[in-house]
Amino acid sequence: MYSATKKVSAIESGGRDRAMFKRDTLLGEAAPVRGHHAPGLVMLIATLGASVPSIAQPDAVSRTVEIYAQRCSGCHGQEGDGLGPAAERLNPPPRDFTLGMYKIKSSGFDEYLPNDEDLLRMIRDGMPGTAMPAWGDVLSDQEMADLVRHIKTLAGYEADEKPSQQVEYGTQVLGSADSIRIGRELFLERDRCSECHGKDGKGDGLKSLKDDNGERTWPRNLTKPWTFRASNDPRDIYTRISAGIAGTQMPSFADPASDKVLSSEERWHVANYVSSLAKTDNVVRPDNTVVKAAKLVGRLPDSADDPAWEQAEPSTFFLVPQMLAKKRLFKPTNDTISVSALYNEQEIAFLLEWDDRTQSIPGDENAEKIADGQIFEDSVALQLPLDIPSGTEKPYFGMGDPTHAVNIWQWTSGTTDEPEQTSLINARGIKDIERRDAAGAGVQATGTYQDGTWRVVINRALATANPRQDIQFLEGRFIPLALAAWDGSNGETQSRHTMTSWYWLLLKSPAGSRPLIVALIVILAIIGAEFWWMRSASRRRRQ
Amino acid sequence: MKIPRLLQVVLIFVGIYVAFKVVFGFVLGQPIPSSLLTMYMFFVVAGLFMVFTFTDESTRELVAPIKALVEDPARKPVRNVVFIVVPLLAGAYAFNVMLPDFDAPLELRSIHPAPPSTVKIYDQRYDLSTLENPLRKFQKDDPQKFRLLVAEGAEVYIRNCHYCHGDKLDGNGPYAQGLNPIPLNFQDIGTIAQLQESFLFWRIATGGPGLPDEGAPWLSAMPVWENFLSEDEIWKVILFLYDYTGHRPRTWEQE
Q1: Is B59 part of a structural domain of the chain?
Q2: Over the stretch A44-59, which tens digit does the pLDDT of each residue have?
Q3: How many angstroms separate the CA of residue A396 from the nearest CA in chain B?
Q4: Which of A74, A240, A357, A543 could form a disulfide bond with B158, CB atoms 3.0-4.6 angstroms apart?
Q5: Of B98, B167, B227, Cβ closest to residue A514
């Protein structure tokens, strides 16, 4: 879009030449001069080596090539073309270094070449939410600096070439309620950002996005800052807004040619607003492994917007792609899910909430347009053991095992022809599955989708007439609980889904009066002992 | 001025407690579990008691302030305050202890459980005590071919294993945080460096479900790789694991 299209065509003509140039030099053959980045690697080293002492010597170059082959080529490819053996199983795909285009950069929007520090930062700190790890603890500063130079030469840049333009930061506007309000207005104005990122910033805009290589890209869910490739510091966000994200449909809003251009001050407001979107109450807390169900007196909620849910304490867990059984899922879109639970004397209710950019309705024209390939229904499932374990032994977390059965309650979102549906499965491993009547067992589920979030409520009685087939919930016991989710617009169906490992469900039994009684007994006993001590002491004094 | 002996005891006790907290919690970054700390402090109290009550004289000196508090009429106001505060504190402590516990149960598992003597993998029975990596011999015999095998192992690894065990083989892959127990860190000296290649073959081929009960097979997210990889691929990936980390597999000869 905007100037991005202009840039792409420019790269297409130059990219191939650069790639060939790079291959030749790496093989140590005489480097034919191609494109406008002319000098061969050897010449480059000769000229630079003389003036700057820290510059790579020939030995260091071969060492850098070695490090690249060992650490980087598995994803980015031996040739730097982003086609390493892992590439087809990764989304986002590994960067194709021969293109000379980088997503996270702080040079000006009209410039492909990043600052060395931009590349160094991605190598050193990694890119959250992707397969790119932080190499800072493995490689030395010098090794990383050499890699930066090497990566630039893969694209045909000179190793010490510097960008001619930088992002202009102007005067930073500090985050305040006013700035955030203005930022929100600009975010929504003429659908500037919400077109892709959605009204609430959950990346749920009704648009199918692809990068320049045709790989599916999903707009960032701005409420999950832990997936930001850089950070959600307003300065980093400002840089993205100003420079755009090269190779994707995220344009620069500093580009005067854009009809949605923003001034520097306005970009600071938007950055402050985006930074404020972080949904900290839905962050995964690694030490929290227990979903605590609070006990209510009276009716339980049977819909997601019931105010009674405010009394529940949500627990958020990571969703990981299913890789235990064929077919595996390698490119998940759902990454976390939150669970809340409430119960009363008769019933238990679960609220499952997860952000999903797409409401996947097979048959719906808009939904099918956004979907990546064939569309399936969205879905969520809750897995519980048939028998609450008394020791540590549990059913296998992947649908139980021959000696330990699980109950799986699954809700599916429905199509244009079919309403939402609740199903019940008893499983003893993936090959031993019994489909049962959910309504007959009293499992009821209903879901709503709004602004990029699914909310599904599942209810069931604590006890059923069929204890040999259904879990019977007991107060105060730790009950294993696992979850699974399907994003139908991401081709997820059947075994291709995301899931959690075992966590716990606990029906919190009210404390009752026991702690108070014990505390009173302790207090009285100590006071009694004190009196006895004082009396015996005064008796001794009188004697 | 001489510090009263009772105050000395209290100061030493507090000093040691704070030292434990600071040294392990902040300096070493590995806080002592509270149950262990309680045990240590019990020994500290016992030791202090022995030292400070070594003679009758020192015992008398130690308890003198407490006796005076109760028996000296001039100290009555202080005594009354102490006699009210102490039971209240004890009561509050008892109340907290009696509140229901919402912490998840501890799940102890053996990370390197003893392997069975024989295992059935790819419909074939293997004796793990004699099984060796059939590709290991190339390390000496044909180094060039060995490099190629390691590179092929790297390819298997990056396509299948890095999601959990990480690009850096440090057990911190992109999905590691979503797993409990967390994936093994191969860089750690306590993992593959302590194991024979046949052990790895067994663990990779049969995955989580192949663990004995003490390894908590119901928890492990390790897939059963014989369903996805060939025998050859598993041996190659084992070569890669040792090559990349620089660890050496244990062999019978070393022991």
Answers
A1: yes
A2: 444 443 444 445 567 8
A3: 4
A4: A74
A5: B98
Least CB-CB distance to A537: which of B70, B86, B157?
B70
CB contacts, 8 Å: A523 with chain B:
87-88, 90-91
Chain segment A179-204, per-residue pLDDT in tens: 999 999 999 999 999 999 999 999 99
Measured in whole angstroms, the distance separating CA B203 from the mean position of its chain's CA atoms is 20
Kindly state whether residue B34 falls inside one of the protein's structural domains.
Answer: yes
The answer to whether the CB of A454 falls within 8 A of the CB of A346 is: no
Which member of A71, A502, A522 has the closest CB to residue B90?
A522
- Quick check: B193 contacting A, CB < 8 Å? no
CATH number for position B232: 1.10.760.10
A332-366 pLDDT, tens per residue?
A: 999 999 999 999 999 999 999 999 999 999 999 98
Distance CA B243, CA B82 (A): 67
* Beta-carbon separation of B218 and A515 below 8 A: no
Dump pLDDT digits (tens) for A428-461: 999 999 999 999 999 999 999 999 999 999 999 9
Domain residue limits at B187: 118-254
Q: Is residue B111 part of a domain?
A: no
Domains of chain B: total: 2
Q: What H or E segment, with its residue span, contains residue A483?
A: strand A478-486
The answer on pLDDT for A26 being more than 60 is no
DSSP letter string, A348-378:
EEEEEEEE-S----TT-HHHHHHSSSS----
B167/A74 Cβ within 8 A = yes
Q: Which chain A residue has its CA at the smallest distance from B92's CA?
A: A519
Rounded to whole angstroms, the Cα distance separating A480 from A484 reads 14
Interface test with B, best of A124, A330, A523, A524 (most B CBs within 10 A): A523
Burial of A394 (0-12, 13-18, 19+ CB in 10 A): buried
pTM above 0.90, yes or no: no
**Chain B residue at shortest CA distance from A227:** B174
Predicted-complex ipTM score: 0.84
